[in-house]
Design brief:
Length: 445
């Protein structure tokens, strides 16, 4: 397709960036590993729109990897931050700001008797595992193939996709580290299993259940696109973890405050022992959280035998102010924001499915309301990591997204992420996406 937009200023800036930053970015998911020819340099955002360094306007469906639940520069959040920063950004003492954020959090998340704020989702999942190990006195834990829980050492096993011939069997999965620099002894503590497969889960729990401190899962597999749990899967997971005395850590970093006020634990009615949050909680500010029963989180109380959790910026005052304002916006008018997120997302999903059908493009749109993904595949559904690695044409998806960029739709070309709906999106934005999708299909074929 002939690019309709000039991106020369982005190109220049990206070349300059590469002289000072590794690959020109601060996280590989933003650089030329995913953007052919280099990423756009985004300079400004408002509502559902962003503008790049060349002044091109886009409707943003990446929304800062899901963090921007209210889009860019929401006036209520801008005002909360502006006032707070003028008063002093952070005191690292106890503040009323963290009390207000925590009270609202507890009011929305059913399993949150108490909450501890961290600075990122990775810090939250790291703390959750430490708590689980301390509480159970066990060291092993179970993670699922294809689930990403942040960049803490023990979680970095099979979190990336790989060619199907390298995966081993479902009964005995190949254990593929996602990073150099992690001792193999770290992974000796990790039991690895395919997700969404009750038989595999029951087999492994029978063998290892009594050694496990925890089973950690995303409620919707969000780092191989968007893969919902099969009917009854999360319920069974809850049962077997109870049966073997392993804690269930529900990683809601992506799904929290997105699917329902109480995240997927409310949406699917699952009671985790510990849950972790990030992204949408901070509405664009860096934060994570660990929530659960007081009995468990009390292990962080100072004294001998405590679980240590320090952090200069924990409970950062600006972020806490943003969280309180964010959660008030989400809860306003009896949680009306969630009706909007679901309605708009469902409309986008239906519209894109119709486009693919009309254009006779073999693609499916998978997900629910606020978050979904497009897979170019012959399959009717993608149920797990192995399906994703085997049946999804990620190269075609990348070409599709590059075509959309030229049509004013901003999204990452990485198929492992997902489309995000924010409260700032409108019906007109969804119509623009469907129209651009239609034109991009014409170009693809
Ligand atoms: C499910 C899940 N857990 C944890 C994390 C880590 O969060 P953060 O990037 O804030 O460290 C992510 C990040 O994408 C995630 O998707």
């Amino acid at each position: 397709m002939t690019p309709t937009r000039t991106r020369s200023r982005s190109q220049e800036l990206f070349e300059r960036a590469q002289r000072s930053l590794i690959e020109g970015v601060n996280s590989p998911s933003r650089g030329s590993a995913v953007f052919a020819g280099g990423p756009l340099m985004i300079e400004r955002g408002r509502g559902s729109r962003v503008w790049d360094a060349d002044g091109n306007e886009y409707v943003d469906f990446l929304m800062s990897f899901g963090a921007l639940i209210h889009g860019h520069a929401h006036p209520v959040l801008v005002s909360a931050v502006s006032q707070a920063v003028a008063e002093g950004s952070h005191f690292a003492s106890a503040t009323s700001a963290e009390v207000e954020a925590a009270e609202r959090f507890r009011g929305m998340v059913p399993s949150a008797e108490v909450v501890r704020f961290t600075n990122s989702g990775s810090e939250a999942t790291m703390l959750a595992l430490r708590l689980a190990r301390a509480h159970t006195g066990r060291t092993k834990f179970l993670k699922f193939e294809g689930h990403y829980h942040g960049w803490y050492d023990p979680y970095l096993l099979n979190a990336h996709s790989h060619p199907p011939e390298t995966l081993g069997s479902a009964e005995s999965p190949a254990r593929i580290p996602d990073s150099e620099g992690i001792p193999s002894s770290t992974f000796a503590e990790v039991v690895l299993v395919p997700w969404n497969d009750v038989g595999a889960l029951e087999r492994v729990m029978k063998k290892h259940g009594r050694e496990l401190a925890a089973v950690i899962t995303e409620p919707i597999m969000a780092n191989m696109g968007c893969i919902p749990p099969r009917d009854g899967y999360l319920e069974r997971l809850r049962d077997v973890t109870r049966q073997w005395g392993a804690l269930l850590i529900l990683d809601e970093v992506v799904t929290g405050f997105r699917y329902a006020p109480g995240g997927c634990q409310e949406y699917y009615r699952i009671q985790p022992d510990i849950s972790t949050f990030g992204k949408a909680l901070g509405a664009g500010f860096p934060v994570g959280a660990v929530a659960g029963p007081r009995l468990l989180l009390n292990r962080m109380q100072w004294g001998s035998g405590m679980v240590l959790h320090y952090g200069t910026f924990n409970g950062h005052r600006l972020t806490m102010k943003v969280i309180a304002a964010n959660l008030d916006l989400l809860a306003a008018d009896h949680n009306a924001a969630y009706d909007k997120l679901h309605a708009l997302g469902d409309c986008a999903i239906t519209g894109l499915r119709e486009v693919f059908k009309k254009r006779k493009v073999r693609a499916i749109v998978q997900g629910l309301g606020p978050m979904f993904q497009i897979y170019f595949t012959d399959r009717d559904a993608i149920h797990d990591y192995r399906d994703y690695c085997t049946w999804v044409d990620t190269g075609k998806y990348s070409r599709f997204v590059h075509a959309l960029l030229d049509l004013g739709i901003y999204m990452t070309p990485s198929n492992g992420l997902h489309w995000i709906i924010s409260t700032a999106h409108t019906q007109a934005d969804i119509a623009a996406l469907i129209d651009a999708g239609d034109r991009a299909c014409a170009e693809l074929s």
